[in-house]
Design goal:
- The structure is a single chain.
- Helices cover about 60% and strands about 5% of the residues.
- It has helices at about 15-30, 40-50, 55-65, 85-105, 110-125; strands spanning about 70, 75-80.
Length: about 130
């Protein structure tokens, strides 16, 4: 896990395994943990966090059940490829965001040509 830190708050009412599961799921969903990236072993993460191995094992089992990670003998535990349909959800989110942006730009009084040019300019700046 390159630089992605998982922390457990032992004073929280949320069980430690759920804190680990939620944090790793968020890191995977956000792309901070990329497909194929290796996670620490159950024992290593448990030692790092000062928890029982069973606590980390439960978090890993739930992440595996959600198809977010895969554990293979000899290959360790790695971030799984995105499930089929993940890009469809992202495309829908892009369409929603685009509609919101267009509605906002039109409300400011900009026409289609100005809106398209603003998007092209933002893409050019991103590539630079």
């Amino acid at each position: 896990m390159s630089g992605a830190a998982v922390r457990v708050d032992t004073t929280s009412p949320v069980p430690p395994y759920e804190q680990i599961r939620a944090q790793l799921a968020a890191l995977i969903s956000s792309g901070r943990l990329a497909e194929g990236e290796r996670l620490p072993t159950v024992r290593q993460l448990a030692a790092d966090l000062g928890l029982a191995a069973g606590t980390v094992a439960r978090a890993y089992r739930e992440l595996e059940a959600a198809s977010l990670i895969r554990t293979r003998r000899g290959a360790g535990t790695r971030v799984a490829p995105p499930p089929p349909g993940a890009h469809r959800r992202e495309a829908a989110e892009l369409a929603d965001g685009t509609r919101d942006f267009v509605a906002w730009a039109v409300a400011l009084g900009f026409g289609e040509d100005h809106i398209l040019e603003a998007v092209r300019q933002a893409l050019r700046e991103r590539e630079a």
